[in-house]
Amino acid sequence: MSSYWSLTEQEARDLIYILLYSMRTDRAVAQAVTALREFWETIQRCDEHAPSSRDRLLISVLDARRLNPDWWRLHLISSSDVLYQCDTCGRLQAISIRAVCPRYRCLGTLKEVQQQDLEPNHYLLLYGESDMGRLRVEEHTAQLDKEKAREFQREFKEGKTVIWAGARAKTIAEE
Ligand SMILES: [Zn+2]
């Protein structure tokens, strides 16, 4: 027998472990590709038989697809709901599948947390308020006439407009 294959019991065990581990990863990738392909084909089949284009799950936009907003479903998370927080990136999730963090390339583990135990968070507090106030957004570009532009600048300084959009808006906001 060649000396290359003279492994100690520990080395043999390690080698088998490494081989099994790599096979498991390959299998997982292949299964993920198959599952995603089946999802895609099922959605396409359902959309082809949808009673109208408004009933489709995906809407064609140029050469891409967009989720039809009529199918979106949202629900409010109450203070008694259990949330999951990643122990690495800190992101909060409403669901946990085998405690794996769904953030791209994060290897963290999701842990159960109660909403009241979380550190104060600006957005959580903001969304929890019954009256969020009005949000006014205006375009501020060179296309505006001077009088309208001055009016928007004045209202922005008075705090009546929260967001501006346009290349010139950034410069004025910094003045
Ligand atoms: Zn994470």
Structure characteristics:
7 strands; two-stranded antiparallel sheet; single chain; extended; alpha+beta; binds zinc ion; 4 helices; three-stranded antiparallel β-sheet; 175 residues
Task: Set out the fold topology.
Layout: H1 9-48, E1 58-61, E2 64-67, E3 82-86, E4 92-93, E5 110-114, H2 122-128, E6 137-139, H3 146-157, E7 163-165, H4 167-174
Parallel strand pairs: 6-7
Antiparallel strand pairs: 1-2, 3-4, 3-5
The protein binds zinc ion.
Structural class designation = alpha+beta
The shape is extended
Give the percentage of residues in beta strands.
Answer: 5-15%
User: Into which percent range does the helicity of residues fall?
Assistant: 25-40%
Q: Give me the side-by-side strand order of the main sheet.
A: 4-3-5
- Oligomeric state: single chain
Tell me the domain tally: 3
Mean pLDDT: 82
Calculate Rg over CA atoms: 27 Å
Tell me what the structure shows.
The strands form 3 sheets. A 3-stranded antiparallel beta sheet has the order 4-3-5, with no helix packed on it. It has a two-stranded antiparallel sheet with strand order 1-2. A two-stranded parallel ribbon has the order 6-7. It folds into 3 domains: 9-71, no CATH class; 82-128, no CATH class; 137-174, no CATH class. The protein is extended and about 85 Å long. The protein has helices spanning 9-48, 122-128, 146-157, 167-174; strands at residues 58-61, 64-67, 82-86, 92-93, 110-114, 137-139, 163-165. It is α+β, with helices and mostly antiparallel strands.
